[in-house]
Amino acid sequence: LAMQIEHSAPAAAAKLAPSRLSLVPGLTINLVFSVFFASMLLCPPPCANADEYYRSLEFDTPRFTLHIQTSSDAGKDDPRIESIASEAIASLNENFDEYRRIFDEEVHNKVVLRFLTPQEFHKQTGAPEWTSAMYYRGEITVPIPVSGRVNMDQLKRALRHELLHFITAEMSHNRCPAWLDEGIAQLLEGQPNPLLGPALRTWLTQDNPLPLDWLEHGFTMLEDDMVPAAYAQSLFAARTLVNSYGFKKVTAYIRNLGSGMTNEAAFGAAFDSPFSDFEQKLAGQLQRWAMSSNQNP
């Protein structure tokens, strides 16, 4: 999972992103929520000072600054590094243009990307071991190995997801609730994770839908068994808003939050309906979905 921690001060109170395949082909997948563990490559012995083995290469464009941590003997002209950088930046530019059209939003701040070794990623971010990417304060951080082939399709999918967090953070001034942020990111990321539906259905057969205020500031403080349901319910809630009111009103809600309005006021102004009514109706829709044959939330 990737995580986004715009909504909480401590690094531990972070926001997860949807699960995706490991960036290292062939890596065994631990499906706690189809959370794909980043490849954990050990530092060369004695692993006492990573600076002796790694260096950071910078690739700068008008929209993005990419830092890639790699072995100390690799340079920007290394074919592997050059390929990763060029493909990642090209994909980000394409997604950036798409999101700008979808949200009708001009974004002026530059995005900083950091591709770190898996160990350095967890050391710097304090992210849980299952986290495979992170967005925080304008920076997208992803763990990738220093050698071997990187699954670029999965890396691009991860970057597309994290870039969405950047856009919503810009629009809302970091006030977009996690359930909506993650829900929209999953909607726009592509085909939903196949484990989301079963996870949410299992949860709903045993308990009530998660209150949305539990999902406002991120998911890492939830019990482990709640996390898959939190992602799935966020996707369901975001899809319900879009299907019921249209995407333009959803973006209006996000912009209202960015203007400083309370959540209730921002929601009411965008949808002409109280937030409490939406949550109540959502609970009923979730229960009906759980009893249906629909696979995806």
Number of helices: 9
Content-based structural category: alpha/beta
Distance between the termini: 18 Å
Any guess at the CATH architecture of the largest domain? 3-Layer(aba) Sandwich
Share of β-strand residues: 5-15%
Strand order of the largest sheet: 2-1-6-7-5-4-3
Mean pLDDT: 83
- What is the global morphology? globular
Question: What is the CATH class of the largest domain?
Answer: Alpha Beta
CATH topology of the largest domain: Glutaredoxin
Radius of gyration: 19 Å
SSE pattern, N- to C-terminal: EEEEHEHEEHHHHHHH
Number of strands: 7
Low-pLDDT segments, ≥5 res: 5-48
Fraction of helical residues: 40-55%
Please outline the major beta sheet: 7 strands, mixed
Indicate how many domains the architecture comprises: 2
List keywords for this structure.
2 domains, single chain, Neutral Protease, domain 2, 7-stranded mixed sheet, 12% strand, Glutaredoxin
Protein model, in words:
This protein is of the alpha/beta class. The chain has two domains: 171 residues, Glutaredoxin (3-Layer(aba) Sandwich), CATH 3.40.30; 113 residues, Neutral Protease, domain 2, CATH 1.10.390. The chain is built from nine helices and seven strands; from the N terminus they run E-E-E-E-H-E-H-E-E-H-H-H-H-H-H-H. It has a seven-stranded mixed beta sheet with strand order 2-1-6-7-5-4-3. The longest helix is centred in the first third of the chain and has 25 residues. It is globular. It starts with a strand and ends in a 7-residue tail after the last helix.
